[in-house]
Specification:
Layout: E1 2-6, E2 15-19, E3 29-39, H1 41-48, E4 64-72, E5 84-87, E6 90-91, H2 97-100, E7 111-112, E8 124-128, E9 132-134, H3 141-145, H4 148-161, E10 169-172, H5 178-189, E11 193-198, H6 201-209, E12 214-217, H7 223-230, E13 236-241, H8 245-253, E14 255-263, H9 276-281, E15 285-288, H10 294-305, E16 313-318, H11 322-330, E17 337-341
Parallel strand pairs: 10-11, 10-13, 11-12, 13-14, 14-15, 16-17
Antiparallel strand pairs: 1-2, 3-4, 3-8, 3-17, 4-5, 5-9, 6-7
Bound molecules: zinc ion.
Length: 342
């Protein structure tokens, strides 16, 4: 089959579209003929490499994918060849206390498809049955591939960790990102008031279209000053932080008493400083979050079925154009998700 492979870390040019061996479908696995995959920032980290973080090469990247069942192991009774399915990116042992409790994103062996095993930037993938679920009716492969990683991340941050409530103020940074465009919708679904930031007015208009109540152009206006205006000096109850160093200080300044910063990433740098006096005096919380449990994706898909959450697609590339797709995402031009059609 054809697949994208990384043989060495580096720029987009290290993404090779080449012939590789077909995946082996084990007795408990499902073989999927992929039709679409989506790009996440994690793919860029995996390609570039991060000091101190070992990724086994060669590797096919791609955390999110959707397609049709092309085969299955003899232990699989319920899915059939031709069924439309999507990939759950969580890799976990399935046996430890966390997995058994449903908290598979806390598993000591936790990883992500396309990072700890070959991913979805390929014509086929074979994964354990627990990583494959049917696509909600009416959804295209492209839409299905746009959902898992970013919606799971944003759901776990807002619903599970921050426990967002109606009428609370939620600050969503970088609304044009995959996580940002999912977070706006999830916060609105729970009745919160959303303040969204983006780097240009076109993106802010799209954020408004997803339900954002207040808008900040973070290149033109200081985030915390605008938050003060919008909240009448109160500050926000929750910050959806995935930018890191570039926004950290503004995120802290924007936080109300009793507020929570939930962080799932640091695309601009991970070394930040914190003045503890403010944290304890204001009863604030800084909460880490990575992905979600598999179970939370089922909750998300229920709302997708009801059209209360929707995948946001910016642009599609063909699989062999994966390097261009990475460049496009690296430049931050997108609003929502960038798709690879297969
Ligand atoms: Zn486990």
């Amino acid at each position: 089959m054809k697949a994208v492979q990384i043989h060495q870390h580096g720029g987009p040019e290290v993404l090779k579209y080449e012939e590789v061996a077909d995946p082996i479908c084990g007795s408990g696995d499902v073989l999927v003929q992929l039709k679409a995959a989506s790009i996440n920032h994690l793919d860029l980290w995996v390609r570039q490499g991060i000091p101190g973080w070992k990724v086994s090469l060669p590797l096919t990247p791609g955390c999110d994918g959707a397609g049709v069942v092309a085969g299955k192991g003899e232990l699989i009774k319920d899915l059939n060849v031709g069924d439309k399915v999507l990939v759950i990116p969580n890799v976990s042992c399935g046996n430890c206390e966390y997995c058994v409790n449903g908290d598979d994103n806390l598993c000591p062996e936790y990883g992500i498809v396309g990072e700890t095993c070959n991913g979805c930037d390929a014509e086929m993938i074979a994964l354990p049955r627990r990583n494959i679920i049917p696509i909600p009716k009416g959804l295209t492969y492209e839409e299905a591939a746009a959902i898992p990683l970013v919606f799971m991340t944003a759901w776990h941050m807002l619903v599970t960790k921050a426990q967002v409530k109606p009428e609370q103020f939620v600050l969503v940074l970088a609304a044009g990102s995959g996580v940002g465009s999912a977070a706006i919708q999830i916060a609105k679904l729970h009745g919160a008031k959303v303040i969204a930031t983006a780097g240009n007015d076109a993106k802010l208009e799209k954020a408004k279209g997803l339900g954002a109540d207040f808008l900040i152009n973070h290149y033109k206006e200081p985030i915390s000053e605008m938050v003060k205006q919008y909240t009448e000096n109160r500050g926000v109850d929750v910050v959806v932080e995935h930018v890191g160093k570039a926004t950290w200080e503004e995120s802290l300044k924007s936080l109300a008493k009793g507020g929570k910063i939930v962080t799932c990433g640091a695309t601009t740098g991970s070394e930040v400083s914190i003045n503890l006096n403010y944290i304890f005096y204001k009863h604030q919380q800084i909460i880490g979050s990575t992905m979600s449990t598999r179970g939370e994706l089922f909750e998300i898909l229920n709302f997708v079925r009801q059209k209360k959450l929707k995948p946001v697609i910016d642009k599609e590339f063909m699989l062999k154009e994966v390097a261009d797709a990475h460049r496009y995402v690296a430049e931050g031009k997108q609003f929502g998700k960038v798709i690879l059609t297969i």
